[in-house]
Amino acid sequence: MDNYEKAFYDHYGDDNQSPIRSALEFVLYVEHFDPTQDEMSAVFQSLPDTEQQRLKNATKRVKQLAQGKQNNG
Fold first, then answer.
1. pTM, whole model, 2 decimals?
2. Are 21 and 29 in contact (CB under 8 A)?
3. Contacts of 35 (CB under 8 A, 6+ apart)
4. Burial of 23 (0-12, 13-18, 19+ CB in 10 A)
């Protein structure tokens, strides 16, 4: 969670009761708990919009890197 988002929640409150609150926490959760697709989807949907977007952007970049590596090697 970046400083802007933290300040927003500090000021307006936070109705998100999920223990997973950031893109990094989500990745670590998936790595360590091996959740089902439904569980992952529920946790992803509970993330703040900014964190969902970070995950989407990171996934896209990693796919592009993997594609480039396959094409080059």
1. 0.69
2. no
3. 29, 43
4. buried
Separation of alpha carbons 39 and 14, rounded Å: 22
For the chain, helix, strand, coil in percent to 5 are: 75, 0, 25
* Whole-number Cα distances in Å, 51 to 17, 48, 66, 68, 70: 15, 5, 22, 26, 28
If we measure between CA atoms, which residue out of 42, 6, 43, 9 comes closest to residue 23? 43
Q: CA 53, CA 50: separation in Å to the nearest integer? A: 5
pLDDT one-digit tens code per residue, 24-58: 999 999 999 999 999 999 999 999 899 999 999 99
Token representation of residue 32: 């360590």
Contact between 48 and 23 (Cβ < 8 Å): no
